[in-house]
Specification:
Length: about 180
Amino acid sequence: MAMKRIDVIREISKRKGLIICNLGFPSRELYSIKDKNTNFYMLGSMGMASSIGLGVALCQKEKVYIIEGDGSILMNLGSLATIAAYATPNLNLIVVDNGVYGSTGKQPTHTAKVADLKKIAKGAGNKKVFEVKSIEQLKEALEQGGPLIIVAKVNQESKKVPEVPLEAEFIKKRFMNAIYELNK
Ligand SMILES: Cc1ncc(C[n+]2csc(CCOP(=O)(O)OP(=O)(O)O)c2C)c(N)n1
């Protein structure tokens, strides 16, 4: 049976580390699984989770899990080259590829027909890039040690969960405090 985005997010949420999550349903699903002060929910901008996550990985020692979307990473492909150039071993970028802009009505993205994110990530210079289609494959890929890019192929399903009821400023400050406490 095809993997769902929420299964991928649940697996990542079980792990110890910081999570920077894409906006829309991915953040809503992550919040509904378990809200933590180590979760950063991106509320506004597509494609910025990978850039923010790289910055967070570079400036402290905790593991960082970035949950991106295919539509979002396609808007910021440059971040894949910046990650190839600068990423530290604590960086794990998971691109959840459902082939659609799932949070805004399932309009197809370019991964549905032409774009291969694994090849793009490799072509940008990243060494460890995996494509996974099951939770078992995802777990195995996550064991490989970073910097790591995983393209997780999922179906188009979003769980009908409410919006994240937190203010952007609160999310940022809480996340910064959590990083400070973990790294002191
Ligand atoms: C720059 C920008 N353009 C458009 C939007 C509107 N928008 C919010 S979420 C979203 C879809 C995101 O798709 P994807 O990254 O593939 O993630 P999915 O929801 O499918 O998991 C869109 C178009 C936005 N927030 N920011």
